[in-house]
Amino acid sequence: MENVALVLEGGGMRGIFTAGVLDGFIEKGVDFPYIIGVSMGAYTGASYVAKQKFRNKKVLIESVLDKDFINIKNFFTGKSLLHSDYIFTMMNKFKHPFDYDTFNKNNSKFLSVATDVESGLPYYFEKSDMVGFEKTLKASCAYPGITNLVEINEKHYIDGGVSDPVPYKKALADGNEKLVVVLTHPKGYVEKAPWYLKASSIVYKKHPKLVDILKTRHEEYNQRLKELEKLEEEGKVFIIRPEKDLSILSKDIKKLNHNFEDGYKKAMKFSKNLH
Predict the structure, then answer these.
(1) What are phi and psi of 35, to 5 degrees?
(2) Nearest CA to 212 among 145, 204, 149?
(3) pLDDT tens, position by position, 98-107
(4) What is the reported pTM?
(5) In this structure, is the dihedral angle defined by the CA atoms of residues 242, 196, 116 and 77, taken in order, positive or negative?
(6) Cβ neighbours of residue 99 closer than 8 Å, sequence gap 6 or more
(7) pLDDT of 200-229, one tens digit each?
(8) Number of C-beta neighbours around residue 19 at 10 A
(9) Are 7 and 180 within 8 A, CB to CB?
(10) Which residue in 17, 49, 157, 177 has the fewest CB atoms around it within 10 Å?
(11) Integer Rg of the chain from CA
């Protein structure tokens, strides 16, 4: 598919839907020459590029079952609420090893989006400059309020969804003519001001531009959804989204499995229409 990009939204455990979509694509041999993911979209997208079917599902399900992955007690001790190293170190290197060889040999362009906390602008890590692969993905997934900032080459980054929640504009700017966009909220979803907004001016007081962008992030997100739907009407974008919503830290295994299957079935239907 020439000049067609795959755009992957984040969303924490909502990414289980994306995992289902990507496994369906792997099974049907659907390859995109350009993949851009933000936050959990970057994490799941990396396994798609590495052609590791079911890896994302195993990692996400096993993570929520582990009591140390999301630990409320950490909130009261000054530690990160989300133990992200569990995914980026334990899972990637030991429990479900990431296939770096296949990932690096894949000719598709892969970008992971993070937010530079000093400028408040998105930074797009390309596969070729992912020095310390786990760290770049960790930066893309550093959700405000529940994880720590990530330092890379003396710069600090936070979740890419803060500055570029659905990076379709970057995909178009890079010359792609059509997009397949995987969202993690159902149709009709409207983002509200986040729970951490009032505390952000205190927590991130050393990074005023980051605080400013956090204040309007939900409005920007809603605007982008409207723009995507308009592009879909024009035939430039094909949107794949779940029927049911999930919380970002959902531990409901039944709901997680349901959304995985929903994504998988939607990918199979999409793949069928390609032939």
Answers:
(1) -130, 130
(2) 204
(3) 898 999 999 9
(4) 0.92
(5) negative
(6) 50, 51, 52
(7) 888 888 999 999 999 999 999 999 999 999
(8) 28
(9) yes
(10) 177
(11) 17
Write out 163-180 in H/E/C secondary structure: CCCCCHHHHHHCCCCEEE
List helix spans (H) across the chain: 15-28, 40-49, 55-65, 85, 100-105, 133-140, 168-173, 197-203, 208-233, 253-272
What distance lies between CA 175 and its chain's CA centroid? 22
Q: How distant, in Å, are the alpha carbons of 18, 84, 179 from that of 240?
A: 9, 27, 11
Token pair in block for residue 81: 């609420």
- Strands 150-152 and 155-159, bridge-based pairing: antiparallel
Tokens 């851009």 found at: 36
Q: How buried is 57 (Cβ within 10 angstroms: 0-12 exposed, 13-18 middle, 19+ buried)?
A: buried
Q: Which two tokens stand for residue 119?
A: 């400028």
CB of 95 within 8 A of CB of 107?
no
Output the average pLDDT for the chain. 88
- SS3 state at 1: coil
Dump pLDDT digits (tens) for 7-57: 999 998 999 999 999 999 999 999 999 999 999 999 999 999 999 999 999
- What is the β-pairing status of strands 109-116 and 155-159? antiparallel
Output the six-digit token pair for 19.
Answer: 């995992």
Query: Based on the number of CB atoms within 10 Å of its own CB, is 203 exposed (0-12), middle (13-18) or buried (19 or more)?
Result: middle
Closest CA to 8 of 162, 184, 231, 143: 184
CA-closest candidate to residue 109, choices 24, 35, 55, 58: 35
